[in-house]
From TrEMBL:
Catalyzed chemical reaction(s): 3-hydroxypyruvate = 2-hydroxy-3-oxopropanoate
Organism (species): Leptosia nina
Signal sequence bounds: none
UniProt-recorded name of the protein: Putative hydroxypyruvate isomerase
Function recorded in the entry: Catalyzes the reversible isomerization between hydroxypyruvate and 2-hydroxy-3-oxopropanoate (also termed tartronate semialdehyde).
Length: 260
């Protein structure tokens, strides 16, 4: 197992996205994942990452104003050109940072119709074709409705159906165990059956989204072994909110007999 720090969650308090690269390195991480670095140029982010001497695994697509709930426009009819421009800019950042994965966020929507699903699938097909040109992987993530009400994609079955219909090696599933437990549970069965479609994994305890060894619904000692036994050997993103200090919270790594 190899773990990467999620810069949006783990080192967020009092630090800019640029400063978090160095904080992750100081904590012992070899790699990070992050949201789109709004407010910072490509060169600024690249320099911060290189100064820290750390690998970037994944970056979220440019989403719009997150303070207004704009978590992407992939499923929004009439915004196809905006989606394509956002993807293009994110590809530029991914290539500059050496990130091989892009999380393609769907958006928050009310009154969903079939048109939304049609546009979503069409945009994902476009994305897969574009990402293939750069040997990049796009991942889509079902997000539970408790954490993000009205998020468009909150169904693992629909996500995998779309991935199978598009049939591209450049589009896979982002399997966040936190969301999987919230949405449908039955973790052992679902991990085994979803694994052929998985391109990235994230973890956090349920329901409070803290460290894997904190009190909650998921036995992560078992789940991490299950991921491994089902063939997952890529990076696992730690997308959790530290219950206390970030560095103190990392003691679970050695407790579970892993290392950074």
């Amino acid at each position: 197992m190899k773990f990467c720090a999620n810069l949006s969650f783990m080192f967020s308090e009092g630090a800019t996205i640029l400063e978090r690269y160095a904080l992750a390195k100081e904590a012992g991480f070899k790699a990070v994942e992050s949201g789109f670095p709004f407010g910072h140029t490509l060169e600024e982010v690249k320099q911060a990452k290189e100064n820290a001497g750390i690998e970037q695994v994944l970056i979220n697509i440019k989403t719009g104003d997150v303070t207004k709930g704009e978590l992407g426009v992939t499923a929004v009819p009439g915004k196809e050109k905006e989606f394509q421009a956002n993807l293009r800019e994110t590809i530029d950042y991914a290539n500059a940072l050496g990130a091989r994965k892009i999380h393609i966020m769907a958006g928050q929507l009310n009154d969903v119709t079939q048109k939304n699903w049609d546009v979503y699938e069409s945009n994902l097909k476009y994305a897969a074709d574009e990402l293939k040109k750069y040997n990049l992987l796009g991942v889509i993530e079902p997000i539970n409705q408790h954490s993000v009400p009205s998020y468009f994609l909150s169904d693992f079955g629909k996500a995998t159906d779309i991935i199978k219909r598009i049939g591209s090696e450049n589009l896979k599933l982002q399997l966040d165990i936190f969301h999987l437990q919230h949405i449908c549970g039955d973790l052992s069965y679902n991990i085994k059956n979803l694994m052929p479609h998985v391109g990235h994994v994230q973890i956090a305890q349920v329901p409070n989204r803290n460290e894997p060894d904190t009190a909650g619904e998921v036995n992560y000692k078992y789940i991490l072994k299950s991921l491994e036994s089902n063939g997952y050997n890529d990076w696992i993103g730690l997308e959790y909110k530290p219950a206390g200090s970030t560095n103190d919270g990392l003691k679970w790594i050695t407790k579970f007999e892993y290392s950074l």
